[in-house]
Amino acid sequence: MTTVAAYAAPAAKAPLERTTIERREVGAHDVLIDIKFAGICHSDIHQAREGWGEAIFPMVPGHEIAGVVSEVGSDVTKYRVGDRVGVGCMVDSCRECENCVAGLEQYCLEGNTGTYNAIGRDGEPTYGGYSEKVVVDENFVVRIPDGLSLDVAAPLLCAGITTYSPLRHWNAGPGKKVAILGMGGLGHMGVKIAHALGAEVTVLSQSLRKKDDGLRLGADHYYATSDDATFEELRGTFDLILSTVSAPLDLDRFLSLLRTDGAFVNVGAPEEPVSLNLFSVIGGRKTLAGSGIGGIRETQEMLDFCAGHGIGAEIELIGAAEINEAYERVLNSDVRYRFVIDTATI
C-alpha cells in the first residue's frame, strides 16, 4: 500500500479537506499514475452532497484525471513509465457481458466500477483524482496524445467523452442541425466537438451572457431560452438537441424544437424527476434519450479526435485549497468553463 495526500469530503455536504488515503500495491496489470491535473465536474458536487442518493464517505472525488505513468506491473503491455495518460469515470467492469465485449464498458450489465464513490472488485472503496497518485488497471487507462497539454486534456475524460459519444452515436455532422443546451463545462465541449464534426451548431442558453464565447468556440447561432420568441422561431428546427443541463427542464417545450425523427438526448442528470406529455414524442416520431460517458475504445478515439482538431477544454487552473470555493462557483455558473486542480498543490 502507498499513502498519498488527497482532498476528501468526510461526510455528505461537508467541506472537502486535506487528508491521506491508501493506494493499493501495483498489481501485474496495473499502472501507477502520478496525477498532474484533475478536473472538477458538476457530478463531483452531486455525489459529495448526496444529490444522487446515498454515497460512500470519506469521498475523494475526481474522474477527469491526467498524469504520467511512474510504475507498471509485470504484465503490463500498453504503457511504459513516462507515458502521458488519463483516467475517466470508471476503473473496471465485468469485462464479460455483451456490452463490455462490444466496447461499451460504461453500460456493463453488472455495473461498471466508478473511479470514486464505488466499491471495487477487491471490496475496497475507490478514490478519485483529487489526490497525488492513483493505481488503475491498464485496460481502463487511455493515452493522452502529445498534441494535448495535460491541463486542458483532463476535462476531456468526462466532459469531452460525455458529449462526443452521443454526438457520434446520433450522427452529428455535415447537413445536421445540432443544438447544445447549456453552455457550461459539458456544453462548451459539446459546441467544440459538434463544430469539429461539421454540424451546424446552435447554443440554447438561459441568457445571452456567454454568446461571444459560444460563437468563438464554434457555434453558428446562439439563443436565449428565457425568451419565448426563441421557441416560436426555432420550432421544428433541430435533428439533435444535446442537453447538458442538470436542472429539471420543460421537456415538452424543448421537444417542440425537434424536426420529425429528431432526438433530444440527456447527458445532464437532474436530481429530481421530470415530467413529460407523451404526445410531445408521438407527434413527429421524436426520440427522448440519454447517454452516459463512453467506452475505453471510444474515449481514446475522442482524445485522438480532439488532438487532431486542436480541441482542449477552456479551463481555470486552481490550487487544491480553492476546491470548496470552486464548488460554490460551479453551482453559481461562475466558471468558464472547467475548474482544473493543479495536484502539485495537494
Structural write-up:
By secondary structure, the chain is an alpha/beta fold. The protein is built from 11 helices and 17 strands. The strands form 4 sheets. Strands 3, 4, 5, 8, 9, 16 and 17 form a 7-stranded mixed sheet that branches. Strands 12-11-10-13-14-15 form a 6-stranded parallel sheet, covered by helices on one side. Strand 14, helix 9 and strand 15 form a beta-alpha-beta unit. Helix 4 crosses helix 5. It is globular. It starts with a strand and ends with a strand. The mean pLDDT is 97.
| Average residue-wise pLDDT | 97
Main sheet record: 7 strands, mixed
SSE string: EEEHEEEHEEEHHEHEHEHEHEHEHEHE
Count of alpha and pi helical runs: 11
Question: Radius of gyration, rounded?
Answer: 20 Å
Q: Please report which band the strand proportion falls in: under 5%, 5-15%, 15-25%, 25-35%, 35-45% or over 45%.
A: 25-35%
The helix/strand class is: alpha/beta
**End-to-end CA span:** 19 Å
Please give the share of residues in helix.
10-25%
Which shape, going by the Cα principal axes?
globular
| Poorly predicted runs of 5 or more residues | none
DSSP, total strands: 17
